[in-house]
Amino acid sequence: MRDTYKKILKTYAEYLFKSDIFKIDRKFPVSQIYVNLDFKKKVKPKQTKTEPKVVSIDEILKVSMGLVIGKPGAGKTTTLKFLAVQHLIALIRGFEIQAAGMEEFQKSEVSINIAEPYLPIFIYLPNKPLETKDLYELAKESFRSCIGKDVRGVDQVFENFWKDGKVLILLDSFDEASAQIQQEVIEALRKGYETKPKVLLAMRDGVFEAKSDTFWNIFPDVFSILPLQLQDEFISLWVKALSPQKGNEDVQKFVKDFRDALDRLERRRLSLRKSLENPLLFKITIELVVDKGLELLDKVNSRAELYREYTDKLINRGLQRLSSMGVELSGKEREEWEKLVRSSLKEIAVEHMAEEKILSHERISELPSVNELEDKLKEKLSEEKLKLFSEGIVPDNPALGFLCNHIGIATSQIETVEFMHKTFLEYFFAQWLLDRWHENKKGTWC
Question: What is the value of pTM for the model shown?
Answer without folding.
Answer: 0.90
